[in-house]
UniProtKB/TrEMBL annotation:
Belongs to the oxygen-dependent FAD-linked oxidoreductase family. The keyword DNA repair does not apply. Gene3D superfamilies: 3.30.465.10, 3.40.462.20. It comes from Canariomyces notabilis. Keywords: FAD, Flavoprotein, Oxidoreductase. This is FAD-binding domain-containing protein. InterPro entries: FAD-bd_PCMH (IPR016166), FAD-bd_PCMH-like_sf (IPR036318), FAD-bd_PCMH_sub2 (IPR016169), FAD-linked_Oxidoreductase (IPR050416), Oxid_FAD_bind_N (IPR006094). The lineage of its organism: Eukaryota, Fungi, Dikarya, Ascomycota, Pezizomycotina. Pfam families: FAD_binding_4. One of its GO terms (molecular function) is oxidoreductase activity. It comes from the Eukaryota. PROSITE patterns: FAD_PCMH.
Length: 456
């Protein structure tokens, strides 16, 4: 196996995806993308699309030895037009987009980590640092140029192919493939709204998990404050040894924000991992990335969404502790509360709507993550996440606090993400797929993903 081949195998963030495909095809231009799709269609070859390979579900952007991975990382054009619309290729990371836009004093809505790919993030909805300010990543798409199954390249936006435009905002890889402005003149790309460069302030504190009741109380208080101030963002990441809390504000102020006082009042601070810093989305993403470096490890994730409740959050934490107790040494289990306010859902509606089917209510997008060494057995990790999936949903359902939504960006492969968007959205997605891909090419030949074929 040559170095280039091995490099492709091991691009993926999670080693659960380090399977050897039959071939990896690095595509340089949109025309090559259309060509490659034509060949896999003609030969009936299974394929997977990869932008940066950050999705940890095996078979989504990786394939086994009967499949081909179409690697879009080199499709990395970037152009800012006179109206401030950023036209970016599918192969960009948000770190690259933020750094480039900062040179133009602009910001776009992207991920909280610099290494994550634009395409997977946006097509999966996309949770940024400040969802309440401008909505989710998908809501920031003004237009997309799409290579369809028959090789046609179409625009999808509020004026053209509106059904496709809405479908793409959360609908994943069911409709076509997104690429950049190639040098052949064939154009496919995401056009993103931009805003004057966001000056932000952030702090990351580590607390003692024994104080979880008070930490949860502070998390809920900050979420309540978000309903009044859309510039507030936060995350609370529970680990066995510490709880990492990100306090984020899309504004600069030398004063501590009152909304974060419940955290400053806690007596359980272990250390300040990142002291209060004035920066940008880029510097925040760089800071967060230092905690997410790629290392030798397999990962599995799981998504659930609930309403806000101290009692429920406490119950979730206790279930987590039960799961941790059962894990052998070397398996790291952690979970994150990602608060979302009503303003975030409203922002999506204001930008023409998306496919996510979110209830307009304060909510928490939970993501559970297990990480373990490649040499170790997958079973304990699968068992731990399976336990949490069953118990957390049952707990939330029993209290009337479970929401249907599952985030594509945080869900494990078997979760029915598209189904979770609700009957109306699912039916729209099916109609759109039938219209733009009548032969079901993306359903039949795509290796994996949150596909309509699994959400009947
Ligand atoms: C360290 C880390 C931090 C993260 N932070 C965040 C965060 O802040 N917010 C958030 O919402 N998510 C976050 N995620 C989750 C991330 O958004 C998803 O894993 C996403 O799928 C990654 O996209 P990608 O393009 O990098 O991945 P890939 O693994 O390359 O692709 C993911 C999926 O998208 C499809 N796809 C890729 N390119 C295309 C294309 N051009 N056209 C059609 N389909 C395509 C693939 O087939 C695959 O199903 C994070 C993940 C990691 C590992």
């Amino acid at each position: 196996m040559g170095d280039a081949f091995q490099a492709e195998v091991s691009v993926a963030w999670s080693q659960t995806c380090w399977t050897r495909a039959a071939a990896y095809v690095r595509l340089q231009t949109a025309a090559e993308v259309a060509n490659a799709l034509g060949i896999v269609k003609e030969t009936g070859t299974k394929f997977a699309l990869r932008s940066t390979g950050h999705n940890p579900n095996a078979g989504f952007s990786s394939a086994g030895d009967t499949g081909v991975v179409l690697d879009l990382r080199n499709l990395a054009s970037r152009e800012l037009d006179a109206e401030g619309i950023a036209k970016v290729g599918a192969g960009n990371t948000f770190g690259e987009v933020y750094a480039w836009l900062a040179e133009h004093d602009r910001s776009a809505i992207g991920g909280r980590d610099e290494q994550v790919g634009v395409a997977g993030f946006l097509l999966g909805g996309g949770m940024g640092a400040f969802p309440n300010l401008y909505g989710f990543g998908a809501d920031g798409i003004k237009s997309a140029e799409v290579v369809l199954a028959d090789g046609r390249i179409v625009n999808a936006n509020a004026q053209e192919n509106q059904d496709l435009y809405r479908a793409l905002k959360g609908g994943g890889s069911n409709f076509g493939t997104h690429g950049p402005n190639g040098d052949t003149g064939v154009v496919t790309r995401f056009d993103l709204y931009t805003y004057p460069l966001l000056k932000i302030q952030y702090t990351i504190n580590l607390y003692n998990p024994q104080d979880y009741v008070a930490i949860i109380d502070a998390t809920v208080k900050v979420q309540e404050a978000m309903e009044k101030d859309t510039k507030i963002g936060s995350f609370t990441n529970f680990n066995a040894q510490f709880v990492a809390v990100g306090l984020l504000h899309a504004g600069t102020s030398s004063e501590r924000l009152d909304a974060f006082q419940p955290f400053w009042d806690l007596n359980s601070l272990i250390t300040t991992a990142c002291p209060t810093t004035e920066g940008t989305l880029l510097s925040l993403a760089q800071t967060v990335s230092t905690r997410h470096q790629q290392n030798d490890g397999k990962r599995r994730i799981y998504s659930v969404t609930t309403r806000v409740s101290r009692e429920l959050y406490g119950g979730i934490y206790r279930l987590y502790r039960e799961a941790v107790k059962e894990l052998p040494e070397g398996y790291v289990l952690h979970f994150t509360a990602q608060p979302v306010g009503t303003a975030a859902v409203q922002a999506g509606e204001d930008r023409g709507g998306n496919s996510l089917g979110l209830e307009k209510t304060p909510q928490c997008w939970w993501v559970f993550t297990c990480e373990w060494a490649r040499k170790d057995d997958d079973a304990p990790a699968e068992k731990a996440l399976g336990f949490l999936e069953e118990k957390v949903e049952a707990l939330a359902r029993g209290k009337g606090l479970l929401l249907a939504y599952k985030s594509a960006n945080f869900a494990t492969g078997h979760q029915k993400v598209l189904h979770s968007y609700g009957a109306e959205n699912l039916s729209r997605l099916k109609e759109t797929a039938a219209k733009y891909d009548p032969e079901g090419f993306f359903q039949k030949l795509q290796y994996g993903g949150f596909l309509l074929r699994d959400n009947a």
